[in-house]
Amino acid sequence: MTGGGHWLDLRGPTACEVFDEAQVAELRGRIGADPLRADADPDTAYARIRNSPTPLATLLLNQSVVAGTGLIFVTEALFRAGLAPTAAGRVVTPGAWGDLWRDLCALMGRASRPDGSTRCARSTCRRRWGGRPRVDRHGGEVYVYRRAGQPCLVCGTPIATGALAGRNAYWCPTCQPTQT
């Protein structure tokens, strides 16, 4: 879809519709905070997360909690935060949420640029985790996404996988211990 100086490359949507202004307003009223919007309020998302027994990855993939996140963003951001995708939302402290939100904003912001990808900045990857991530077929650099059974690039533990919210989740059991 192109027009007016903008373009959209949409792959595999569950729904794809063109909305008028009233429909857009109604939709924005029911979706969560969008990490790509400068005016997003991460506190609204955290209010839904902070007391929830629901697994964190499930919450982050729920578009009424955080808008626009996908499995790559969620799994990679949780890895960098040291949070297991299976951990209950209630274990996330306000400080950890702030860090996680900023990381989602950065990841999604880089991916939304015309030359974007899901990669983390090379300097950040090396500084934070001491090594280079693997480059996935989407052009992004990943630590856990689709690396089930392979050694963690940080500690060597095999990357775990499991179904969560109808999706495959990936995590390092050592670097992302499950908190209760």
Q: What's a quick, concise take on this entry?
A:
The protein has a single domain, classed as Helicase, Ruva Protein, domain 3 (Orthogonal Bundle).
User: What is the count of β-strands?
Assistant: 6
Question: In what range is the share of β-strand residues?
Answer: 5-15%
Low-confidence blocks of residues: 115-129
Number of discrete domains: 1
Give the averaged pLDDT, no decimals. Answer: 82
**Class based on secondary structure composition and strand pairing:** alpha+beta
| Rg over alpha carbons | 17 Å
Please report the first level of CATH classification, the CATH class. Answer: Mainly Alpha
Task: Walk me through this protein's architecture.
Helix content is 34%, strand content 10%. It has helices at 21-30, 42-49, 56-61, 71-81, 94-112, 122-129, and strands spanning 2-3, 6-7, 134-135, 141-142, 160-164, 167-171. Residues 115-129 have low confidence and may be disordered.
